[in-house]
Amino acid sequence: MSDKPGGLQASGLTKNGINNFKFKGLLTLVDEINPKIIEELVKNPNTSSMSLATKLRMPLSSLQRRRAKLEESVFVKVYHINLKSGGKMGDVVINVDKGRSREVAKNILKKFKSIAMSVSIL
Questions:
Q1: Least CB-packed of 40, 70, 111, 117 within 10 Å?
Q2: E strands within the chain?
């Protein structure tokens, strides 16, 4: 058995005898093409496999196989809410000293102009 980087052995077992099948699969992901696929998908996660295969000049089936393996083992899907699409997230009620409502409202709009859509004074 030959040692791999990090003390891992080619048999798929670590020195403490734990099955290392998943790590062995990740070693096959390291070549000159996969970093290019990763770079493109990080730039635009919605890139189609066809356009990516064309850009990287490789067969579509090969790209799809590599992409699926990367998505299973390396990538994490994250969802974000686009608050600028017109949706309303919530209301905030702030009690202020008498006569300071306009001042506070202006400061809120100024300080949080990228996320505050409106301020009302009662």
A1: 111
A2: 3-4, 8-9
Identify which of 56, 75, 53 has the alpha carbon closest to the alpha carbon of residue 64.
Answer: 53
Quick one: DSSP state of residue 3? E
- Write the DSSP symbol of residue 55: H
Report pLDDT digits (tens) over 85-102. Answer: 666 666 677 777 777 888
- Compute CA distances 5 → 10, 68, 83, 104, whole Å: 10, 25, 45, 59
* CB-based contacts of 117, cutoff 8 Å, min separation 6: 88
Measured CA to CA, the distance from residue 49 to residue 47 in angstroms comes to 6
Instruction: Pick the closest to residue 64 from 81, 47, 42 (CA basis).
Output: 47
Query: Does residue 13 sit in helix, strand or coil?
Result: strand
Tokens, residue 80 = 């974000």
What distance lies between CA 79 and its chain's CA centroid?
8
- The residue assigned the tokens 């040692």 is 3
